[in-house]
Structures are given as C-alpha cells and as structure tokens.
Amino acid sequence: MEEYISPKRKRIPYGMMNFADIRLDNYYYVDKTRFIPLIEDSDRFFFFIRPRRFGKSLTLSMLQHYYDVRTKDMFDDLYGDLYIGKYPTRDRNSYLVLYLNFSGINSELHDYRKGLDAHCRTTFENFCKIYADYLPQDALEELRAADGAVEQLDALYQACARTNQKIYLFIDEYDHFTNSILSDPESLHRYTGETHKEGYLRAFFNKVKAGTYSSIKRCFITGVSPVTMDDLTSGFNIGTNYSLTAKFNELVGFTEEEVREMLTYYSTTYPFNHTIDELIEIMKPWYDNYCFAKECYGKTTMYNSNMVLYFINNYLDQNAEVPQDMIEHNIRIDYEKLRMLIRKDKEFAHDASIIQTLVSQGYITGELKTGFPAINIVDPDNFMSLLYYFGMLTISGTYRGETKMTIPNQVVREQLYAYLLNTYNETDLSFDSYEKEQLASVLAYDGEWKRYFDYIADCLKRYASQRDKQKGEFFVHGFTLAMTAQNRFYRPISEADTQAGYADLFLFPLLEMFPDMQHSYIIELKYAKYKDPESRVDELRLEAIGQANRYADTEIVKSSIGTTKLHKIVVVYKGMEMRVCEEV
C-alpha cells in the first residue's frame, strides 16, 4: 500500500523552477529573498554565473514574480512569510518582465539565428498580449511588422517607452550555444563571427544595450561561463559581473545551515533512521564545499541545491534509507563538452596537464579570471577558470600568491575521473564496465584485492601514451586514483585530502549504502623511475610498509572502517610496470 503524504508536510521541489508553483502548491522553499535589496543596491545590469543545476532558474523566477506588475495581488501569497514579505522594497511589482531562456534554442551555430528569432518572436508576442493594458494599442502590430529578434526587440522597448513603462529583462542561460564550441572545435570560427564585428548575437546584445537608454531599466543575465560575455563585451559593456562577489556567495545553492533546517523540518514530519548530524556527515563529502568568493574561503561553503533535494527526496521515498546512488543522473555535465576540455588540456605545452596535475597533486594554482575570449581557452589560467565556472573546481584559499583550486566533492570527482579515463584511449572508449564492476564487488565483499590491482596495472600499461610515460609518477598516481574512484562501494580519500602525509589512498567504505560489505583498504602507492636501480624498488617497498602501518593507526581510518576488515596494500611501480603488489 502506498504511503499517504500528509497535506501538512511540504513537498520537496526537486527539479522545479517555477517560484509560484512552489509557493502556492505547498512545496518547501529555502528563502533567498533577503538578496533582493542587495541586488537592487547593485548596478542595474547584473551578470551572474554559476554551475548547471545550481538553482539559477528558480532564483530568476523568484525575482520575476517579485517585480512583475501582474503579480501585485499575489504578493502576500507568494512572499508574505518570507524575508522580503516583511521588508519589501520600493520597486516591487513595478516592472513589465521580459524573460528570455536561451536553453531552448538550437545551439548549433549554423541554425542559431533561426532559433533566436523563433524564441524571441514567441516570447515578444506573448509579452505584448499579457501586458496589452500597459502598452500602446498598436504594439503587437508593430512587433509583427519587424523582421527578426533584433528589430523586434527595438520595436518592443520603444513601445514600452511610449507609455512610460519599465522593462526588467531576464536572460537565462545566455551562453547556451557556447556548448557547441566546446564540443566541436570547428565551430570556433563561426562562433567568432557571431560574437564579433557584425555577428547576429552581437547585434542582439547591442540592441539590449540601446534599450537600456530607453525602457529597459534593469537586466539580470545568468549562464555557466564568462566566455561568451567576454566576446560580446563591447556589445554589452555596461553589465557588472557579480559572480565572484562575496555578498552574493550564497545567492544560489544551500548553506549547511539551510540544509540542516530542511532536514530538521522533514524529521518532524517523517520517522528518520538517522540523526541530522549523521545525514550531514553522509551528504557533505558528496555535495558540499563550493566557494564562489575568495573572501568566503574558510567561512561559508555551499551545497549543490539540486543534489540536496535529490538526496532528501530519495531518502523519504526509500523509507529513510540512504540512496545507493548518491549522484543524480541529470547533473552529469554534458559528456562531449568535458571530453573536449580534456582533449584541449592534453594539448598544453607544459609538462603535466592541468587535470592530471589536479588529480595527482590534489590542487592547482593560478589566476581566477572573470572573463576571457573563447579563442584563448587553452591559456592555463583561462582553462582553470573555465573548470571553476563549470563547477569542477572550487576556491580553497591561496598558495604562493595565487588562487588555490581543488575538486569540491565526490560527485565532481567521480565525473572528472570517469571522463579522464575515457580519454586515455580515443578509439576504444570503454574500459570493460562489467569486468570492472565484478572486480569492485569481490574487492568489497570477498577481499580479493590482487585481481583488482592487476586489472588497474594492465589498463595503465595498455593505455599510457608516450607523453603519459614521460609524466611518470603524476600519471601513475592519477590513473590509479581515477580508477578507484569508479568503485561504487568506496569513497577514495587521497593524501591531498587528508593532509596527514601517510597513505596515498584510503578506500573509505560506504557502509551507510552497503552495510553488508566486508573489506576496506589502505593503498600505499610508490613510483620508481624506469632508469632507477632495482634496489630503489625495495627501498620504496619498505618505506610504503611503514607508512601504511602508521596510517592504519590514525583516527580517520579507525572511525571509518566499522566492522570491515582493513587491508594494507603496498604497490610499487617501476616506470609503467607494477613490480610490487602485496598485503602488509
């Protein structure tokens, strides 16, 4: 029999982006309205970028309903018990709201003009119909007489000016078509044509700029990358980029306090099998640790809001059991886009690629850019910045005067490592997933570790390019870490994560999800150069044994292994060949 959901318990707004639906249909809403006065006090043309599925569209919807003249009578229902309901601003419900969502436009550049025209025509006509009482009688007729998005936008804002109406323009996913240039290098030339000189997209943003001298009084533009805005910059150079500003660090995503409040609320309406602290401990390594302003490092980190809602939704649906799959399928970054980034990364002239350095060293450093042209993506600082904006990196302080960046959490780590592995062989992109899954299972349940590490060594030797071999220890460590990250029974914690300096890798058993698993592992990985004498292998073996024993005695290991049997594995490579693989 299906469980009856009490109407008193708020539903979880997982996957929802319409603010009015959430507020009127009894869904839980994390109040972000306290940022409205801060946005009003900022420059009127507001540019804001965050990773995909982080709550940007819902934030835009919340702002639209707040400023729309048509929702004035709904103000108490929508905002009454929220911060802004108690402290409304002067500008509430005083704009005609024009909302453009570029995510629905065909992102192929050769069709982009056609797609932009179609989307704008539909949106502009709807605008004229719903605001007919505020516009000149001939507004719709004039709009239809104009040809294409650029001319129609001109007609629209001039019609509003004639009746002294103010437009608040929202553009969601303004950079949607940038995906094309990241997945298809041949598109870069056409992209440059669209965003420079007399390109159509540039002309459109030029027209937006012209409208700001007329009836377009405010703009709020969101996306996931600063690349396109940089290329359009002289077309629309009055927007201010607030993406790295400390006071807007918490505008989207959830703080830990907000996650705790949500869990506490649902724990009072549903019998939980875990305490709030236990659930936070489970979720934190997977979903937390985003920092969007240097000044906020060490103070406030952000959880991916979509992933939090996914977890709580599944937790309640599964009778208060932790979901076995901690990663929501839809959050995975477009495969081809990231594959293109990694291919670009391998073209760099420096010794170790940025991604391999990140995987092996645990961090990278550089200058976080607020914008850069698409043609310069391969510049190391630009590439690092792009990974940051896509949510693949987070700010982790400074090191030697530069911004220090790390992988934020396990969700990102699994994605990044999976895509990295798939680039090691461009022709055969599939490591045998069935074999890998079987080996992972017997590692966790039967303690058969030798076959698992033999498999990794075989893959490493098979897929290593000449350039990978030159990178030596970086490659061997990174490849091993990436392979173990694919094991669904464990969360690999590397030396860089622990700061303890003992073991290269601790396979943290995910007992909340797999309570019957039997085995956990410390792996001490050492590397000797191909030209080193054989005696070096023995030296490293003895060094590794000592380190593995010391690490096994640390609190992080003792408190994590539960009832599993802990294995201490020593692995030594000489060049690309595994010479030692034994249990201490």
Give a nutshell description of this structure.
This protein has 26 helices and 13 strands. The protein is α/β, with parallel strands linked by helices and about 575 residues long.
Task: Describe, in plain words, how this protein is organized in 3D.
With 584 residues, the protein is of the alpha/beta class. The protein contains 26 helices and 13 strands. The chain has helices spanning 19-24, 36-40, 56-67, 75-79, 83-86, 112-130, 139-145, 148-162, 178-183, 187-195, 200-211, 227-231, 256-267, 276-287, 305-317, 335-346, 354-361, 380-389, 410-422, 433-445, 450-463, 466-471, 473-484, 495-498, 534-552, 555-558; strands spanning 45-49, 96-101, 167-172, 216-223, 240-241, 364-366, 394-399, 402-406, 490-494, 505-509, 519-528, 565-574, 577-583. It has a five-stranded parallel beta sheet with strand order 2-3-4-1-5. A five-stranded mixed beta sheet has the order 9-10-11-12-13. A three-stranded antiparallel beta sheet has the order 6-8-7. The relative contact order is 0.08. The model is unreliable at 498-502 (pLDDT under 50).
